[in-house]
């Protein structure tokens, strides 16, 4: 999958901009604060209906504008040519269009243009709590499996309604238990499907992680992961549903006391290791950085094998703390990969100008106050 053109209006510090990208490698350099990240963030927004930088749509709107609009023209193996546009205003909210037809469900866009983003914030994946790793895992799977995304959305709605009942009910516990039964059945059905899919994908993903960490680090420490969920996985989804319901029943009094659902994939954890060392507790800053980078590079190659269309890769300002050897490994790997890649950097030093020039597959852009210009 490739994005050929991008049009912006009122998107963060880009009042109005239009860019035509190269089909393979796109380098974007310029001073800090010039809008490099915002440019590739807009691509991510078109793919995932949200920013990877801002926590809310309202923070994406340029402070001099009442709304933002972004439009991208894409081409791929399945859909030869199509357009995606997104807009947001503080009064009307968010709207998404594919070929000028409105999407009623934003989730229908997920996976249409697979995307991987690698940024300094990815250190949270290995250093912070389980929410970060569940979010990564859900994003990883949702772009390859629409059914998984539907199950995830349904599960969240069921859990929300179940929690509401737990929080608002006042009366005998036996009556509450009876009222929860229909929600329990739905929760177990959707939750079991989510857990099984997570286990299946992580088993495949381990190999990609090992390859990419070994390539980036150049050392013999072996990365691995353990998926921690509600119980040891049985052979079938039906058995897991039955175990799930038993666990819900066993924890009923705790849930009634805490007024929330405490059993389910929303509490899963993925634990990362280097050899026998648990990374989160014992890893150095350098090991955390390399591991998080390996996770995202592994995601790129996992998608490349699993999907009919190659993903778009976005690398945002990751070279600042890397030595030249690591920079060369990453750029060489991405140059060999057939997909479209975007790299932002405040410095021009890491890049080989010979990759550009007459090579129309690659392009080098610079961003200054005057706007976006193509250097090569």
Describe the largest sheet: 6 strands, antiparallel
Rounded to the nearest angstrom, the radius of gyration is: 23 Å
- Total domain count: 2
CATH architecture designation of the largest domain: Up-down Bundle
Total helices: the number is: 10
Predict the CATH topology of the largest domain.
Answer: Glutathione S-transferase Yfyf (Class Pi), Chain A, domain 2
Q: Report strand order across the widest sheet.
A: 2-1-4-5-6-7
- Strand content is 15-25%
- Rounded to the nearest angstrom, the distance between the terminal CA atoms is 23 Å
Low-confidence stretches: none
Q: Report mean pLDDT, rounded to a whole number.
A: 93
How many β-strands, per DSSP?
15
Q: What percentage of residues falls in helices of 4 or more residues?
A: 40-55%
The CATH C-level name of the largest domain is Mainly Alpha
Question: Could you outline the blueprint of secondary structure elements for this entry?
Answer:
Blueprint: E1 2-11, E2 14-20, E3 25-29, H1 36-48, E4 67-75, E5 82-89, E6 93-98, E7 101-102, E8 115-118, H2 124-127, H3 130-142, H4 146-168, H5 173-217, E9 223-228, H6 237-250, H7 252-258, E10 269-274, E11 277-278, H8 279-282, H9 285-306, E12 312-316, H10 324-336, E13 341-345, E14 362-368, E15 371-374
Parallel strand pairs: 3-13, 3-14, 8-12, 12-13
Antiparallel strand pairs: 1-2, 1-4, 4-5, 5-6, 6-7, 9-10, 10-11, 14-15
Helix pairs in contact: 4-5, 5-6, 5-9
